[in-house]
């Protein structure tokens, strides 16, 4: 009775004052222990308490996915980080973790209002100059969120001066939960590192620091403004990329107000490519900061009724689709993807300031009056900074990959504490690296001929474990920025593949890597001049990549393939099969 009473009191206090943080942590530790024991007992060629290794993976993937979705908040953010890397996880995990990209439930308006009052000391009406009773001299704001994610939700508003804004408001419970959630993540990773002998814990401080920064909207506003300045200063991008303006006077640690963006999502191929129904030399709504069409006028009675039943107030602005609604932006997918790869390559190789969450939900496409695409980049919470020396090394690493300069490649990865250049090169290119000694392929096939399927699958996954240890061989030397840079590369590759591989991604990326060693202001004039000669030679070498790309395009035209990315994915799948995993880029389909 005392135990039941004590547990009930603790649960009530936890729910009321700590946003269920203690309950969530206890749930995490309990399930973490179950999963760890399950793998300790059953991860063998013939599991004791499972039909097979895939069955073992399936039940634990389901357990983990249920835990992350039940806990919500930052757990969903961690789940999305895992999902981004699900291409190298067993297929059972891939299927479960695709759900991490579903819209999260949104908080009630009273919770939203409370966050605004706590941060500004005023009501939403006072902060944004809006009215919920139909005052014609005030702005308007929707109480129902337009989008809801793991940490925040976004509301549309029109300020008194007619400016339309996106108000991103952190969910109220996050502030109470974040410390507990990251502590639980650290403890579980520490235990797994010791129990399974995998060098994972050394990465945790850097990952948790990045996740903490994602909950600080002042940091996100800083990142957005810095990226806007970098883009504006680069002639190759300033007329092709747009970063929405942030309104600092309407922003705080948990509220960020930015310019409202009208656009088409990156993966909406239909509306990107359908014929343009607007006028000649006319852009889509809001392109390059142009004023948006004014919203419809509402009578006071209509306005009050709309707010009471949570109707949408924002105008649709779909005139560009034509009278029959069958139109689109009339854009070339090649131009769209070229701009995207140019942007993220400049971030990695030229500026060293990398947006690490470029999934399709964070990229809008608009049409410029010239008929060319404009890429709008939002959600600037997750960035990594590359120091100049590391950035120059990374440029040289990519050049070495493209030219099969194995001596330089080996020297660079050794300085990063990586013991296996071959496997790391393949992981970076996301295609088999054929310029090395093929030690990876030889090693994973050694001693496996003639063994039963289950025993072979077990040994392959053990070799995958060894491959991870080789990549993270020297934890003190390993550049932790590579975690998020690799995530960026994988998402960009997935975007290009989904759109039908309209561009030679590897050539564009390699060209930026080489050219950035010429343009980098951190290098001396003599170094930059020397790099210019090397770059001209490198441009000739890239011709071989073009041959591969156009051969794939010819096959695609005759229905014999899906394009360059699909061909590379097929090659990687063959290698991955030897590791006992299946590659699958469709991690955004939830």
Automatic annotation (TrEMBL):
Identify the domain of life: Eukaryota
Q: Where is the ABC1 atypical kinase-like domain?
A: 100-411
InterPro entries according to UniProt: ABC1_dom, ADCK1_dom, Kinase-like_dom_sf, Mito_struct-func_regulator
Entry-linked Pfam families: ABC1 (PF03109)
CDD domains from the UniProt entry: ADCK1-like (cd13969)
Family per similarity comment? Belongs to the protein kinase superfamily. ADCK protein kinase family.
Q: What is this protein called?
A: ABC1 atypical kinase-like domain-containing protein
């Amino acid at each position: 009775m005392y135990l039941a009473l004590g547990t009930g009191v603790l649960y009530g206090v936890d729910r009321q004052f700590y946003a269920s943080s203690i309950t969530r942590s206890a749930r995490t530790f309990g399930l973490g222990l179950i999963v760890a024991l399950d793998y300790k007992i059953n991860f063998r060629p013939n599991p004791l308490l499972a039909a097979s290794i895939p069955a073992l993976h399936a039940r634990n993937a389901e357990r983990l996915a249920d835990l992350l979705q039940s806990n919500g908040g930052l757990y969903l953010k961690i789940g999305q980080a895992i999902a981004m890397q699900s291409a190298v996880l067993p297929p059972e995990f891939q299927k479960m973790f695709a759900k991490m990209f579903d819209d999260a439930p949104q908080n009630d308006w009273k919770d939203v209002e409370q966050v605004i009052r706590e941060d500004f000391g005023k009501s939403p009406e006072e902060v944004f100059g809006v009215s919920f009773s139909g005052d014609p001299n005030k702005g308007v704001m929707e109480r129902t969120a337009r989008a809801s994610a793991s940490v925040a939700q976004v509301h549309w508003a029109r300020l008194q001066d007619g400016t339309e804004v996106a108000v991103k408001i952190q969910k109220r419970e996050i502030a109470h939960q974040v410390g507990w959630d990251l502590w639980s993540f650290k403890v579980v990773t520490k235990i797994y590192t010791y129990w399974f002998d995998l060098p994972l814990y050394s990465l945790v401080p850097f990952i948790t620091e990045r996740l903490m920064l994602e909950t600080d909207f002042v940091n996100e506003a800083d990142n957005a403004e810095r990226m806007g300045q970098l883009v504006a200063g680069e002639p190759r991008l300033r007329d092709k990329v747009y970063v929405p303006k942030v309104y600092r006077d309407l922003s705080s640690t948990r509220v960020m107000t930015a310019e409202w963006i009208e656009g088409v999502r990156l993966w909406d191929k239909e509306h990107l490519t359908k014929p343009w129904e607007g006028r000649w030399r006319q852009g889509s709504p809001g392109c390059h900061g142009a004023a948006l069409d004014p919203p419809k006028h509402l009578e006071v009675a209509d306005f009050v009724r709309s707010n009471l039943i949570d109707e949408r107030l924002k105008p649709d602005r779909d005139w560009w689709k034509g009278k029959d609604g069958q139109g689109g932006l009339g854009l070339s997918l090649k131009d769209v993807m070229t701009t995207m790869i140019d942007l993220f390559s400049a971030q990695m190789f030229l500026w060293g300031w990398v947006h690490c969450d470029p999934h399709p939900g964070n990229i809008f496409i608009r049409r410029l009056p010239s008929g060319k695409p404009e890429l709008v980049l939002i959600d600037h919470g997750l960035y990594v900074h590359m120091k100049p020396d590391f950035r120059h090394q990374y440029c040289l690493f990519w050049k070495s990959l493209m030219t099969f300069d194995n001596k330089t490649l080996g020297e660079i990865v050794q300085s990063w504490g990586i013991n296996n250049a071959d496997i790391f090169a393949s992981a970076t290119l996301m295609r088999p690296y054929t310029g090395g000694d093929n030690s990876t392929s030889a090693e994973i096939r050694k001693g496996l001929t003639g063994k039963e399927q289950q025993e072979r699958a077990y040994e392959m996954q053990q070799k995958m474990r060894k491959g991870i240890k080789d990549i993270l061989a020297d934890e003190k030397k390993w550049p932790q920025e590579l975690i998020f840079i690799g995530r960026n590369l994988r998402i960009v590759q997935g975007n290009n593949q989904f759109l039908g591989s309209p561009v030679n991604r590897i050539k564009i990326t390699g060209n930026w890597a080489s050219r950035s060693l010429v343009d980098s202001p951190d290098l001396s004039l003599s170094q930059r001049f020397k790099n210019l000669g090397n770059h001209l030679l490198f441009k000739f070498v890239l011709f071989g990549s073009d041959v591969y790309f156009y051969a794939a395009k010819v096959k695609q035209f005759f229905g014999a393939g899906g394009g360059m990315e699909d061909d590379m994915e097929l090659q990687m799948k063959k290698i991955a099969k030897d590791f006992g995993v299946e590659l699958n880029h469709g991690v955004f389909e939830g």
